[in-house]
Design brief:
Oligomer: heterodimer
Order of helices and strands of chain A: HHHH
Largest sheet of chain B: none
Number of strands of chain A: 0
Radius of gyration of chain B: 22 Å
Radius of gyration of chain A: 15 Å
Distance between the termini of chain A: 25 Å
CATH topology of chain A: Ferritin
Shape of chain B: globular
Largest sheet of chain A: none
CATH superfamily of chain A: Ferritin, core subunit, four-helix bundle
Number of helices of chain B: 5
Low-confidence stretches of chain A: none
CATH architecture of chain B: Up-down Bundle
CATH class of chain A: Mainly Alpha
Structural class of chain A: mainly alpha
Mean pLDDT of chain B: 86
Number of domains of chain B: 1
């Protein structure tokens, strides 16, 4: 059960890395923030793969490509794709929180959820969305 | 003699302590904190993000209180006390930052010891407060 939830979370980390790579061409003026997101997701991916291996599971590999909720063709659609993938990340890590009593995994899941929520908020601010905040990150309606 | 023997267990039964009241629900304190933050934000009309913060913290308070009431239904339908309007702090933005930092800290700390079905809810509240903090950044 734990392992399935963590595999799902790993899947969103793969998707996030792919998305950051794909949108970077449209967000030249946000290069530093994009790079920061890539670094954070890469670190989280590596930690998550390590955790899975320690449990005797095989980490799920990344897909060849991911489908953003809407086509990405310019700055605003690139920001929307980043917000969407960060929100998916929030939902996956919240899913881990709901399925584990392992304190270390819980701590890591909470950090991942919080960091993704902060990045989603940052991208919403850049996009000029109001409200920029997400009231309940990881919840479909929030 | 017979009477004394018969009475002995009764005496024991009578002196047994009544069961201690259950410890307060940790989510109660988080709900109260959310209500206090909302009340503070409501008064700080000069801060552009204040109404967004007030609304979000009211939602947090309602969700947390609903979970408290679900697990331990209240004896009467008394609503939780509404915090009194706090005095306007000299630096409203700093006051909101401090309140949200505290909210992130308290909710995050609570996640560690909660049963898993509550960890998701409180984790989202913690992340929601971090999101609000980012709006103020």
């Amino acid at each position: 059960m734990n392992v399935d939830a963590v595999q799902t979370a790993l899947g969103t980390e793969h998707a996030a890395l792919w998305t950051y790579g794909m949108v970077s061409a449209f967000l030249g003026n946000q290069a530093a923030a994009v790079a920061e997101g890539v670094t954070a997701h890469r670190a989280r991916r590596d930690t998550t793969e390590r955790w899975l291996r320690d449990q005797g599971a095989t980490p799920a590999p990344p897909a060849a490509a991911y489908l953003p909720p809407s086509p990405v063709s310019d700055g605003p659609s690139a920001l929307a794709a980043l917000v969407a993938v960060e929100q998916d990340t929030c939902a996956a890590w919240r899913g881990v929180l709901e399925r584990t009593d392992d304190p270390a995994l819980r701590t890591s899941a909470l950090e991942s959820l919080t960091a993704a929520a902060v990045r989603a908020t940052r991208w919403r601010k850049v996009a000029g969305a109001t409200p920029a905040s997400i009231t309940m990150p990881g919840v479909a309606s929030g | 003699m017979l009477l004394a023997v018969a009475a002995a267990p009764l005496a024991v039964a009578c002196t047994t302590e009544p069961p201690a009241p259950p410890p307060p629900d940790p989510l109660s304190a988080l709900a109260a904190q959310a209500r206090t933050d909302a009340a503070l934000a409501r008064t700080l009309t000069t801060v552009p993000a204040a109404s967004e913060i007030a609304k979000a913290r009211e939602t947090h308070a309602a969700l947390l209180q609903a979970e408290v009431d679900r697990e331990r239904p209240p004896l009467s339908s008394t609503a939780p006390p509404v915090p009194t309007t706090p005095p306007t702090p000299p630096d409203p933005v700093a006051a909101l930052r401090t309140a949200l930092d505290g909210a992130v800290r308290e909710a995050s700390a609570a996640v560690a010891s909660l049963p898993s079905h509550r960890a998701g809810l409180v984790g989202s509240v913690a992340a929601g407060c971090a999101s609000l903090r980012e709006v103020l950044a």
